[in-house]
Amino acid sequence: MKVLDLRCSHGHGFEGWFASNEAFENQLAGGLVECPVCADTRIVKLLSAPRLNLGNAKAPAEAAASPAPAAAQVPAEQSPEARWMRAVREVLAKTEDVGDRFADEARKMHYGETEERGIRGQATREQTEALLDEGIPVMPLPIPAALKETLQ
After folding, report:
1. What is the mean pLDDT of the chain?
2. How buried is residue 106: exposed, middle or buried, by Cβ count under 10 Å (0-12/13-18/19+)?
3. Residues 6 or more apart in contact with residue 109 via CB below 8 angstroms
4. DSSP characters over 102-131
5. pLDDT at position 56, please?
């Protein structure tokens, strides 16, 4: 199994697991490798060094006392991309998808015609501007395609 460090054209870094380098190249050529944050398929493989376990040249106490590199001090789950993905997952879990009825549902809640609740859906630019003009707070939230499907 090959674990590759990848990056999309928007600068989002992520990890991909492939059976071989050839499998990665085939999937990349077929447009099957996409960024989990923005769904961009313009992906590049970053340079990475293989890990060689040759034993620890330092004594255990000396190894524990030496500072970790700066990159290792920030856990991956605290990267901006990881925090954003957690926030999107939370929004998905706590809101109802009303699809293209979003503008109508938002108006009904704003004017007291229906109970207020967390909703999400699709609205055109014109619909969004009209909602904002009426004083109805809305905000766009791009949801990566990977989060719209059931996760394994």
Report:
1. 80
2. buried
3. 115, 116, 117, 119
4. HHHHHHHHHTTSS----EEE---HHHHHHH
5. 57
